[in-house]
Amino acid sequence: MEFSNVNWSLYAIIDKSFLGGRPIKQIAEALLEGGVGVIQLRDKTGDIRAFYDDALALKQVAAYHQAPFIVNDRADVAIAADADGVHVGQEDLPVPVVKALLGKDKIIGVSVHDLQEFERMAGHDPTYFGVGTIYKTATKSERNATGTAIIKQVRARTDKPIVAIGGIDVANAAPVMEAGADGVAVISALLCAPDVRTEAEAFIRTIQQTLKKKRPI
Amino acid sequence: MEFSNVNWSLYAIIDKSFLGGRPIKQIAEALLEGGVGVIQLRDKTGDIRAFYDDALALKQVAAYHQAPFIVNDRADVAIAADADGVHVGQEDLPVPVVKALLGKDKIIGVSVHDLQEFERMAGHDPTYFGVGTIYKTATKSERNATGTAIIKQVRARTDKPIVAIGGIDVANAAPVMEAGADGVAVISALLCAPDVRTEAEAFIRTIQQTLKKKRPI
After folding, report:
1. Do residue B94 and residue A49 have CB atoms under 8 angstroms apart?
2. What is the pLDDT of residue B141?
3. A49 contacts in chain B (CB < 8 Å)
């Protein structure tokens, strides 16, 4: 897969606890058909066997759609499932360690919540930055929302892809993109929507309109 | 390290939540000085950065004492910290996957709770079997205790090392060894003891007496 050509606009994080028993492979399929460009699998429950099985399934679906498949935190699962990358937070394995495990051709994403974290992580040369928490969110209730200011600050300091995260939905995605993000990472606004494909399409419309405004012909 | 020569008698599982803030490296040192033959690091809290740092420290201490250092569940952390092996439960990565990640020279341990699980795991040729839950334990309160019968059953079916686990302390270790275990895996009885080194020494005395009884001169 050619990772210089990733479509970061809409980055779906699939967390099984948001699926309510729906089959994960079909949900991923619907998201990709709706325009999602990157899929990440995340699990905080600890059943790694099920997580690994899900990773194998999602890798297959994502590859079919030529979208990168990224595993949250677990470099071992990523390697075993031949994922295209790993996303790490501040409390996960250090970026150089993940790079050494995965090899240099894989995507390494890092979460940064403020400029200090950004500066620290930038030195490790990750593939992209997940920046947030932009808006208040039920998923990470312990975090203070930063608003879009952090996107502008990080944008001024890097040309790498910035994926904004935290409470982003169709209604509030535009200011995030206008602040300089390359895309939005979404969990609940996609997975809790009545139809995930329709919701992904709505995101894509909003994002494309914002990009048009930013680059007038 | 020569893994044909492991002393399985006393296998200490170090879980930070049992340390009450005591420094992990010194605790490991005291355990090894007291006669512990194998050290495992386990973490269920999810702070993988701290887990990785602990793994680096324990690898160093264990290597100094020529004891294998084993990481619970996380093959990525094991590789990154150059651990001597990984221990997996039924809900962790499959043994063949862990073997492929670690290479054939590493220790792979598996937890089995009954004969069905034993038969299923035996086919994957692990290095040793963690067998239990032998006695009732606060650590895995959801499990029914099997008593020592399961040790006898597994012993009749394998020559590989059997490490009994679950509520084992100095007072109840003897019947476990007499049933055919090669050693006992211990968390709370070691880590919650007033002096971990003294407690390890008491375990070793009991285990050696049992072994003498089993093999009279």
Report:
1. yes
2. 60
3. 90-94
How many domains would you assign to chain B?
Answer: 1
b/e per residue B100-133 (b: at least 16 CB within 10 A) = ebbeeebbbbbbbbeeebbeebbeeebbbbbbbb
pTM of the model: 0.90
Range of the domain at A92: 8-214
Cα distance between residue B128 and residue A34, in whole Å: 48
Q: To probe the interface with A, which of B48, B54, B56, B88 has the most A CB atoms within 10 Å? A: B48
B50 touches chain A (CB under 8 A): yes
Measured in angstroms, the CA of A10 and the nearest CA of chain B are apart by 27
Tell me the chain A residues in contact with residue B101 when contact means C-beta distances shorter than 8 Å: 76, 79-80
What CATH number corresponds to the domain at position B20?
3.20.20.70
- A195 domain residue, yes or no: yes
From A79's Cα to the closest Cα of chain B, the distance in A is 8
A3 occurs within a structural domain? no
Between chain A and chain B, how many beta carbons pairs sit less than 8 Å apart? 59
Active site residues of A: 42, 111, 140
What whole-number distance in Å separates Cα of residue B80 and Cα of residue A97?
A: 6
In a domain, B2, yes or no: no
Residue (of A160, A155, A79) closest to A126 by Cα position: A160
B96 touches chain A (CB under 8 A): no
E strands, B65-199, are 69-72, 85-88, 107-112, 128-132, 162-165, 183-186
As for the ipTM of the complex, it is 0.85
Q: Is the CB of residue A121 less than 8 Å away from at least one CB of chain B?
A: no
Say if A93 is an interface residue toward chain B (CB within 8 Å).
yes
> Which CA distances in Å does B173 have to A155, B111, B213?
61, 19, 14
Can you tell me which residue has the tokens 């994002």? A207
| pLDDT of B136 | 85
> Tens of pLDDT along chain B (217 residues)?
556 689 999 999 999 999 989 999 999 999 999 999 999 999 887 799 999 999 999 999 999 999 999 999 999 999 999 999 999 999 999 999 999 999 989 999 999 999 999 999 999 999 999 999 999 876 666 568 889 999 999 999 999 999 999 999 999 999 999 999 999 999 999 999 999 999 999 999 999 999 887 765 5
Q: Is residue A44 part of a domain?
A: yes
